[in-house]
Amino acid sequence: MAGYLDRIGAGLVLKDVEPLSFDYIPAALVGRDDKLVDLATKFSTITLPETSCNVLITGPVGSGKTALAKVFANDIEINFSKKRNISSVHINCRNFNTTPQVLHKVITKLDPGYPVRGLSSSEVLSSIRKILRNLNKHFLIILDEVNHVLMKEGNDILYKLLRIDEDKQGKGTLSLILISQEEVVLNLLEGAVISRLGVGNHIRLSGYSKDGLFQIAKQRAELSLFNESYDEKILNLIASSAASKGDARNVLHLIEGAAKNAEKDGRKNIIPEDIQTISSKEVIAVEPHIIDSLRPHLQLFLLAICRRLKKESEITSGDAEQLYKVVCEEYNQSPKGHTTLWKYMKDLENKDFLSSKYASMPHGRGRTQLLSMPNILPSDLINRLELSLNRQFNI
Q: How many CB atoms lie within 10 A of CB 186?
């Protein structure tokens, strides 16, 4: 067999790629505890007979809207099965963007063999209600990316679902969770629909915090990677790389890309450069003129940091200062003082060269500033900085 094929199935770092899929929903949701509580509060009466609950969830891409809704739906189905027979269906309205398509998806979830051909939407809706009442079942419908069906057909489908029990015996047949990327969906909803949904039943998600992204990275790494292939510093670097957008999908992309980089090199562990290689493809490359525009001692300071971060995921501000002095000796320059270097750090952070955080020192010796370079390859900068400095100091 050809030698290069040895990489296939080798499993040096990746043990299971499925948890890194955008569609994978973990058993437990991390980084959104407050929103789960918020959602549970809005559905506080869901276990009562003859009761419906509705909510609208909005937020940017990768903020966990779909995962929030799916985990919640699964949890109430399992935990309250003795109080109420609850079932759910998730429908992506980007793919099913007409009233007949949505209703077909709903009824085939309840009865896969139900003959819907030739039936009007009203007839299908009536059949859905009849099936649910006969089964004594409450149905939670999750309409994901609902703005697509609203833009194509207006509010008709929502109006019909919200009024499914109107003028009929028995209430509480359906509950709805509507999901949209943007709050512009509010402009697409008619007053009558907003009134039935409930004006206060709106949960807004923002992008994940760095801590939330770290929790996601930790959870997915435990599920998808071999234990010895990464450490907490690697997870922190992944979280830092994704923090600018707060997008959980970037975390998944970085884990998988870094793992495959390591396996390509025949290694059983992820190193900082694996993450930086993937992350650097997501951002604008640092052009030579940007390096040249930095003051000479700022370049010396950045070079010192880059040399360490080529091997490590983080460097303390104190170590950066000491390494800067070494680089100054190399170029026969007198080092600047501590206050000036602190200003340099802030300048580099503002220019997106560095990311920083504070952490406790070992053995309780106070706190220190940790510097990392999540979105740029240090090795790329080293070459450019050395060229620039050699030219300036005639080396």
A: 12
